[in-house]
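Handoff note, outgoing to incoming analyst
You'll be picking up this chain. Sequence as last confirmed:
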Amino acid sequence: MKGDNFTRMLVIITVIFVGTLWVSATYEHVVTAQMVVGGPITQDTTWQGDVLVTDSVVVIPNVTLTILPGTRVKFQYYRGYREPERRLRMDVQGSIVAIGTAAEPIYFTSDAPDPQNGDWSMLHLDAPTGPARFHYVVFEFAQHGLNVWQASPEIASSVFRWNNWEGVYFESYSQPTFSYCQIYENGYNGLAAEQSNTVIMDYCEIWRNGTNGIHIDNSTGEVLRSRIHNNLANGLSVDNNGTLRAFGDEIYSNQSCGIGVGEGSNIVEVSNLNIYNNTAEICGSYTTIASAYTPPPSIDIGFVPEQSYALGYIPGDQALDGYMYVYPDDETRRIVSKIGLGLGLTWSLAWDGQYIWTSTLWGHIYKLHPQTGQVLDDFILPGSPTWGTPSQPWGMTFDDEGYMWLVDFAERKVFKIDLTTQTIIYSFDTPNPAEGGSKGIAWDGTYLNVMGWVSPTIYQMSKTGDIVNTITLDNGGGGGLAWDGEHFWVPSGGGRILKYDQSGHQVGWIYPASEGTWDMTWDGEYLWASQRTNENWPDEKIYQLEVLEDHNHSSYLPLIVKAP
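Most recent structure output, in case you need it:
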């Protein structure tokens, strides 16, 4: 209440509510004791105390969720694969203000008595309409701790730890700021930014992450007065025409380069680095400039997060990690074979009528024998002054004339390849290149079908790059594409592979063979899928699948979400 005007009613809940709170009234709700919540938040709401999430939460546009100091937001944990919707998440399309204190930090965590990495999905910022602020917040035991699309969160004195993939991930025109944060013991990169982001970090410590401490991909990163150490790959990494500025940092004891420089025309500027005990200091070209920044001897984020349930390993540890990365055969599909041992993560798949083709993280294109997995060819495409240079071929197909076509996520181009000369002979822009690129391409006998990334849309294109038709997928999906002669197959952020007709209506689905499906192709009888399993494992990641039961449309109506 505000005076005697009664213009705003405050509902204070002081008892434990059993069930699910669907926030739909016209009043502001304040949770002051353990509360069970889930579903859409349709009005300004405040959480306080212990909050148990039993169904995924969506903060709708123009609504603010405020989380008070000392609040523990616990997501009901799930450790299977057959009900992926039970791995819960929070999607913020409105605004979130989570301001804890040193004495009373806020936790986003698992409700398990023995929490482990991957118990819940993520906190996802989805082009929010208002501010996102996190101070004295701990993100732990998720798949992605914080996953951000087209947002500019302010993050201070916060911790990202024990998450399956990245501790924090940015995609598509995000502009976050970090100060006095810790990012440690996450399964992949501690922090990754891909596709046109600008990340500014000051006085942060990043250590013991499964790959790079910080990875800047086709984005800009400024890492100032920070300590980056003991990561299992590079301390800092920049790739695909990215820009990295590292001023006044201490970078040491990383298992690869202190700073790794990857594909494309990257810009690396360094100043006053204390860099030592890595396998190499800076692996690539860089420019030294003057600045006033100097490495801090230590970094105090203002509090020590609770250690009662310390994980004790970096996610992905094959001896200790209990997360289910690979799934058994089930009624929807059978694993016929696996190939690709030692190739690592493969981003694209194509069938030429006799052999499997794929591309890898480091830009190689491979021709593989489908039964034995033997590498029959291995090359990197030379750049073309006329048509450009591929750097992230995340989609591959063959047309009726035997030409290979690649869709490149970073360059936002479709390339035509003559394999007899292993050269690029033509290229054109992917649809809407300024809006985030494309992933996945499939030839259907008439058109090149290019899979959008920021929206679930298939663009049917001529070989000259004209958009002939668009197909909107009614149940979402993206990140790969296959054509079986009658239907499209598309990975889904909801944990299934979806089957669509030519109008974009879902007509079936199967379970994937492991966590994460990057791309697919059809060989006339079997569906081949490039699976993530765990990105750091050297296992076979190309699966040949026999489709057994692909269900019908009515048996699965997922919540439409962007794939992370």
